[in-house]
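ok trying this again, last paste got cut off
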Amino acid sequence: MPAIDIIIPSLLAHCSSGKLHLSVDGNTLKQTLDNLLQAYPLLKVHLYEESGKQRPYVLIYLNEDNIQWFDDMDVYLKPGDRIQIVQSVAGG
């Protein structure tokens, strides 16, 4: 099972003991994200709505691709793949 690098925004560092770069094992995108939330459960409320749907202001990328473009989350991962979480911030 490859260890996948995950980068989270500094706004969510309080959910990961201050870490912005994480390493999480997983064979598929779904498994890796599930393992991420198991290891850092405070992230769940920031990434997903109660219904389980990804929050609209959160973007999750696998390498250069927005995961919302994928038909499903059963994408197999390989060493060197990277997941990046981007949280939109607006204001005036």
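PB: full thing came through this time. Residues 3-87 form a domain with the Ubiquitin-like (UB roll) fold (CATH 3.10.20.30).
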